[in-house]
Write a structure and sequence with these properties.
Length: 428
């Protein structure tokens, strides 16, 4: 008895050549020009005839959506398919079956016409093709839902009489074939979304949503289709995290530019409200924030003075357009405000090199570039706390009659303690 994994592998093997535009182009009955009711004996005879150097490709039937092929390699592959009971059954399901009302031929015609009139990148040139998409998908969804379809599959498997067409295989077919048809449309939508505007992705997805397929299955197939794009975003973020802070601005810019197409694909296909969309956008926004903050803090921590605030602000504002989680939006907003304040100080010539070493994120240089998620203490509040703590310490030591040098040291120590306490309270 075949395991579930074995059945899945067999179906993957059979369905792989029928992906995308190959769904009908690579159909063995289309390639050979044979009817779906052809017997194994007739298949063998036709195969022998096709190997004759004087073989003539059958005249296309006006009632088929695509003509036969005259390519020798395609013919050889198609005849091998017809020897495989599972592959033959699947190819029969996706071709014309005269007299089988449970599988409407106009569904195959409409869906095949739509595919053939659609470019490989998912673009559609005319309204009539969209009509075919809507009609073909709706009819296929109805056929896959109809019990008559699966009764025919069981009857046909009994006629083929091969142990490889087990109950488990037929059950898997019922689950996988609708997913496969959904995947054809989703794949075109993903490719269309990767274009400059991605405008033609929406009609593919809308036709699919209105067709009548199980919404849960549509969602699962759609999320699986954008996972490669999500993987590219995660890999780019990981690379940016490990970059040298000294090149933080260029790292942040490269991350935003390099993930733009993948994020557009995810957002277009899944929608802006999807949790995977939000997670990918927030991750990019957070990493960009940290790379910019790390660069600013590194710059202020060195001897070169003020960092270039204009490009840093531009990158943070781009990151802000992506962020949706509250923790990320608040973090970026805080750093934008701090960097704007820093830019104002630079403009007035009021910024000095160290020891005034606080960056746009309000993070003390030397801390990790991930920056604090909590509040920060401004320079004025820090100074006030230092003066108050110093004054109190001076007064207390003065009551004891301590020498002047002790008063000075105690005042400085008390001021630092008070300022440090204020920082710890606010940042907690």
């Amino acid at each position: 008895m075949s395991s579930t994994a074995d059945v899945a592998r067999d179906l993957d093997r059979v369905l792989r050549p029928l992906d995308g535009h190959g769904l009908y182009r690579n159909n063995a009955f289309r390639v050979t020009g044979l009817p779906t009711a052809v017997s194994p004996r007739q298949v063998r005879r036709h195969r022998e005839e096709s190997q004759n150097p004087y073989y003539v490709t059958p005249v296309p039937d006006a009632d088929v959506p695509l003509p036969p092929s005259d390519d020798a390699d395609a013919l050889r592959t198609a005849f091998e398919v017809l020897r495989d009971p599972l592959a033959r059954l699947v190819h029969e399901l996706f071709w014309l079956r005269p007299g089988q009302a449970s599988w409407p031929e106009h569904a195959v015609f409409a869906h095949c016409r739509a595919l053939e009139a659609t470019a490989l990148d998912g673009k559609v040139a005319d309204a009539g093709t969209w009509d075919d998409w809507r009609s073909g998908l709706r009819l296929l969804a109805q056929a896959f839902t109809a019990e008559e379809t699966w009764e025919w599959v069981r009857r046909r498997a009994a006629e083929i009489d091969d142990p490889r067409l087990s109950v488990a295989v037929l059950r898997a077919l019922r689950e996988r074939l609708p997913e496969h048809v959904i995947g054809v449309s989703v794949g075109l939508a993903v490719r269309a979304a990767g274009a400059t505007t991605g405008a033609q992705a929406d009609p593919h997805l809308e036709a699919l949503r209105r067709a009548g397929f199980d919404p849960r299955v549509v969602r699962e197939v759609t999320r699986a289709a954008v996972e490669p794009s999500a993987g590219r975003v995660r890999a780019a973020c990981e690379t940016a995290r490990s970059a040298d802070p000294a090149v933080g601005l260029s790292t942040a810019r490269d991350l935003l530019d390099g993930t733009a197409a993948a994020l557009r694909t995810i957002t277009t296909v899944l929608g802006a409200d999807d949790d995977l969309t939000a997670a990918c956008q927030d991750e990019v926004a957070h990493v960009v924030n940290n790379r910019v903050v790390g660069y600013v803090n590194e710059h202020l921590d060195g001897a070169s003075g003020a960092p270039p605030t204009a490009p840093a602000l531009a990158l943070l504002r781009r990151a802000r357009t992506l962020a949706s989680a509250r923790s990320v939006t608040e973090l970026v907003d805080k750093n934008v405000a701090d960097l704007e304040e820093l830019a104002a100080l630079v403009g007035r010539g009021a910024l000095r090199p160290p020891p005034a070493r606080r960056g746009a994120a309000g993070a003390v240089p030397g801390r990790p570039a991930t920056v604090s998620q909590g509040g920060e203490v401004g320079c004025l509040a820090f100074l006030v706390a230092f003066l108050i703590g110093g004054a109190v310490s001076w007064w207390l030591l003065g009551l004891t009659g301590a020498p002047l040098v002790f008063l000075i040291v105690g005042a400085v120590f008390g001021g630092l303690m008070a300022a440090g306490l204020l920082v710890s309270i606010v940042e907690a």
